[in-house]
């Protein structure tokens, strides 16, 4: 078991997962399963953005779903109302979410802890209300229709499910690659220092406002990317796509997978999306089963699936390399009880 766990942390495991993702459309039973997986990948990109500001920087942004909708609406309006093609509109969606994220971040990040969370919750609700009530711009409850799909090339047609799946997969791989580079960089370590405490970070000479704002902008850009891809896939956007509940869904995905980990957002998002799909036969009663499953997950895996696995692997690695007399000390140091080994 330890050898298997060790293998999962090696680069070879990452390449294996990429291969599995590439062949998934070939082994899927129907096109709907490919669509569900593409949708899960899109939400995973958004959750990776939430992981930057919340997992690495320690700021709980409850407006993340609003920025997802902002990216979707920007692309939808530019292509549906103003006749832009997909890719210029896609770049416009990224720039818009980054710009609005900068404005919101400059104001909100002056607040701390729950005050910041409450402020961003209000921002997310305002963004939702604007999409619903500002009919001259967003078409209100009618939503935005006739959203353009990405331009294909040769025999590749992104209006079809499988080619669009591979497009989303490419963006997901890029998002994870960039997150990995960020987490190992000086900037990523700066974010983590801020998460560990503002006072400690300031004592190290870190500019809190500048780095928090940068983390917020990166986070909202991820959300805008996911929202734009979502709009290009479903070809219709309505106010409910900006519902504040989507933010809490993404928080659930992040907590289930492992907050502050590299693979946690992907594991949590794909796992829960497919779990909810498998419980669809229960219709409105599926949440009665889904709720307790989440409670059990939080109780037995408080650091998420990936976070708990990495903690277990760390303890096993320490114990395997230590003499028996030192194993109690390693368990105490890693927070594991030693009652059974006393």
Automatic annotation (TrEMBL):
TM ranges: 12-28, 34-53, 60-80, 86-107, 114-131, 164-182, 214-238, 250-275, 287-313
Topological type in the membrane: Multi-pass membrane protein
Protein name: Branched-chain amino acid ABC transporter permease
Record carries keyword Transmembrane helix: yes
Location within or outside the cell: Cell inner membrane
Organism: Marinobacter halodurans
Recorded superkingdom: Bacteria
Pfam families listed in its UniProt record: BPD_transp_2
Keywords: Cell membrane, Membrane, Transmembrane, Transmembrane helix
UniProt cross-references to InterPro entries, sorted A to Z: ABC_transp_permease (IPR001851), LivM-like (IPR043428)
